[in-house]
Amino acid sequence: MKTLRIATAALALTLFAAPSFAANKDMIQLQTQVQQLQDAVARLQQSNDERMGVMKDLVQQTADSVNKMNQVVQALSQKVQTDQDAQGAKLDQVSGQIQSLNDSLDELKTRLAHVEKSISDIQSQQQSMSANLQNGQPAGAAPAGNQAAPPPQSNQDNPAPIPAPDFNNTPPTSKPSAAVPQGPSAGNGGPSADSLYKSALGDYMGARYALATAEFGDVVGNYPDNPLAGNSLFYLGEIDYRAGRFAPAMKSYDKLIKLYPASTKIPAARLHTGEALISLKQTEAGVQELRSLIQRYPNATEAMQARSKLSGMGIPVTPRH
């Protein structure tokens, strides 16, 4: 009986102890798994921190590289802008020199025309004198030194058909327009177109713009069929353009282009028209005028200046579609 009691107690202790032991075992496994997870998270955090540090270093290096590149690009942009400005200044200087050469060439042409006209007048006088001598001394007449033949001697001293004096040999007055007839010719004894233009060009070169304006206006008004009238319109526009009076300057350029399409001054007139439009904040019209100049006169010096002007403004020479 005693033995049975002991066995029953032992069995009871076994039955109650088994669940407690199983619960403790599960708890230990769970704690072990939690500890493993914590270790894995710690390792992952450490790896992430290391990677983030590397990423920060890479980002910093990239930012430094970008800043250096920006500085280099800015330096290059400034250099390019400086070179463009210098090139534009050189082109403007060359354009001014070429314009001065063209003005000098025009003056030389007028002088040459004046010399040719003077030579032609002298030849005409000589031919007239020879004809008078031949008509006044027929065959068998007494020599010119004989007192019996005074008429031929008189004709030799003052030949009747000598033309009117050439006003090209006289210096222009301060107001040549007062001596110029209102018609398109100088048949009434007024200065010729060459004389007026030469005087106006001399005043223009000497910066006497008020007088040059009046004289160029006389050439345009009195000799509209003369090619020098086209040149006069150009210089009238130049006087206004240099003074900053862009609107009247463009009117003179427009008249030149419409009335004298064969004039050699048209490329310069179109260049200054485009620049005047840009100065008046009419940029689109000015750019269109410069592009038209480049298209119509691609080899002209003014076309080169137009390309430089557009490049300096950051505008392509050919419109983008």
Main features:
single chain, mainly alpha, rod-shaped
The quaternary structure here is single chain
Helix content: over 70%
Mean pLDDT: 77
List low-pLDDT spans: 138-187
The chain-level structural class is mainly alpha
Number of strands: 0
Kindly estimate the percentage of residues that lie in beta strands according to DSSP: under 5%
| Radius of gyration over all CA atoms, rounded | 50 Å
Given the structure, what is the number of helices?
9
Biggest β-sheet description: none
Shape: rod-shaped
What string, H for helix and E for strand, traces the elements in order?
A: HHHHHHHHH
Q: What gap, in angstroms, lies between the N and C termini? A: 116 Å
Q: What's a concise summary of this model?
A:
The chain is mainly α.
How would you explain this protein's 3D organization?
With 321 residues, this protein is mainly α. It is built from nine helices and no strands. It has helices at 2-136, 150-157, 193-205, 209-222, 227-242, 246-259, 266-279, 283-296, 301-312. The chain is rod-shaped, with a radius of gyration of 50 Å. The model is unreliable at 138-187 (pLDDT under 50).
What topology emerges from the helices and strands here?
Layout: H1 2-136, H2 150-157, H3 193-205, H4 209-222, H5 227-242, H6 246-259, H7 266-279, H8 283-296, H9 301-312
Helix pairs in contact: 1-2, 1-3, 1-9, 3-4, 3-5, 4-5, 5-6, 5-7, 6-7, 7-8, 8-9
